[in-house]
């Protein structure tokens, strides 16, 4: 037999195996007949592939199809939740979260640690590693964990595993985090921009299922976005694509932590909202937030503002809604430039303040071409505040499954 033919046959078989896993990821559970129909394969071919995947403990039986009124009911198949795990780590400006993630995208054994204010490099790294170690130790699953995925603020270099210069987390400037984690855990580690892993998590397990091209917007303490083209993270060159938060939206706007002026992040992020609320309180604006305000913004954080807005505080609601409109303007530009199939909005602002999404959608539709936005699905995150850790674990699972086809 020609060796190249054999290699091609193995490659096609492995791609079909990955295709079955992707279907079960998207639909939850399917019968062999449903898989065969969706993949345009014979039942016999699917049956052989399913047997292989079950031997590899990647899929498992999940009960019986319940709409068959007569005859033998077909068995349902789903991804195996109990043999392969990854650790997902999400680093934000203020904290680190880590959890064990299974093949079904479920987060277990979550730990969260807070960074001290103005923490130095050593302190930040120690908190990250100790949080990961705690998850590994308490889960008791280290022998079944295939790797660690880290979603961190950009810009960063995922090839070298190095954090470059995140504006809101100076304690990680120029840190080769991948190597440090691998040295301390003895597990292979991947590092990717936080919004990119959130986008991938939504693609696999959230509202991005059934789409090939999407934009994820992380409206949080900072503002970032992740891009998925043809079901793959688009990193750009050099690895920085999606920095929507550092696109200029007001040429006369306030200085951003990145050093520029008028960035979306400087005007509409959680940091900006707190700053602007403080400015209004100093001018004597009426608000329930006065009791927490110490005169220099240190007594407030964005969750205080969100809580006040939900309770009817007019100042808080106005600041949050205005922030949403600026994000909506930026997304109108994204729609006109990229025309993705869907835009998913997550982060603390969208996750905890429902009107934020409403105003983002309204503004982005009003300011983009109708022939584009009429076909684009703008939706909130399904994974919510778990998007970071689930997405970070997903980059490990994606690599593991892709290696099956090599």
Automatic annotation (TrEMBL):
SUPFAM superfamilies in the cross-refs: Actin-like ATPase domain, Winged helix' DNA-binding domain
InterPro entries in alphabetical order: ATPase_NBD, ROK, WH-like_DNA-bd_sf, WH_DNA-bd_sf
GO biological process terms, semicolon-separated: D-xylose metabolic process
Taxonomy, superkingdom: Bacteria
Keywords carried by this UniProt record: Carbohydrate metabolism, Xylose metabolism
Function description: Transcriptional repressor of xylose-utilizing enzymes.
Family recorded in the similarity comment: Belongs to the ROK (NagC/XylR) family.
Protein name: ROK family transcriptional regulator
């Amino acid at each position: 037999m020609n060796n190249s033919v054999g290699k091609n046959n193995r490659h096609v078989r492995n791609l079909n195996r990955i295709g079955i896993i992707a279907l079960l990821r998207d639909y939850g559970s399917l019968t062999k007949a449903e898989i065969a129909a969706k993949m345009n394969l014979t039942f016999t071919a699917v049956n052989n592939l399913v047997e292989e995947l079950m031997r590899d403990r990647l899929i498992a039986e999940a009960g019986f199809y319940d709409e068959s009124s007569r005859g033998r009911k077909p068995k349902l198949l789903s991804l195996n939740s109990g043999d392969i795990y990854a650790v997902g780590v999400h680093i934000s400006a203020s904290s680190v979260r880590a959890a064990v993630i299974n093949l079904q995208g479920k987060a277990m054994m979550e730990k969260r640690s807070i960074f001290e204010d103005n923490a130095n490099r050593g302190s930040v790294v120690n908190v990250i590693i100790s949080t990961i170690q705690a998850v590994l130790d308490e889960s008791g699953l280290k022998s079944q964990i295939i790797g660690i995925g880290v979603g961190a603020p950009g810009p960063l270099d995922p090839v070298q595993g190095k954090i470059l210069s995140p504006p809101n987390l100076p304690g990680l400037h120029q840190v080769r985090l991948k190597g440090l984690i691998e040295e301390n855990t003895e597990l292979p580690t991947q590092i990717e921009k936080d919004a990119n892993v959130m986008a991938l998590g939504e693609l696999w397990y959230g509202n991005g299922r059934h789409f090939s091209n999407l934009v994820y917007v992380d409206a949080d303490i900072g503002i970032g976005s992740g891009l998925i083209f043809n079901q793959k993270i688009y990193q750009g060159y050099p690895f920085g694509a999606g920095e929507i938060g550092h696109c200029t939206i007001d040429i006369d706007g306030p200085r951003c932590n990145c050093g520029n002026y008028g960035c979306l992040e400087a005007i509409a992020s959680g940091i900006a909202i707190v700053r602007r609320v403080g400015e209004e309180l100093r001018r004597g604006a009426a608000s329930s937030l006065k009791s927490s305000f110490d005169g220099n913004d240190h007594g407030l954080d964005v969750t205080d503002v969100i809580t006040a807005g939900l309770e009817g505080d007019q100042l808080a609601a106005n600041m949050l809604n205005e922030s949403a409109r600026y994000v909506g303007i930026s997304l109108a530009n994204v729609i006109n430039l990229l025309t993705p199939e869907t835009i998913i909005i997550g982060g603390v602002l969208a996750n905890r303040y429902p009107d934020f999404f409403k105003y983002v959608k309204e503004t982005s539709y009003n300011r983009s071409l109708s022939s584009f936005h009429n076909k684009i699905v703008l939706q909130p995150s399904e994974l919510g505040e778990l998007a970071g850790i689930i997405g970070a674990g997903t980059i490990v699972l994606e690599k593991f499954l892709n290696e099956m086809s090599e």
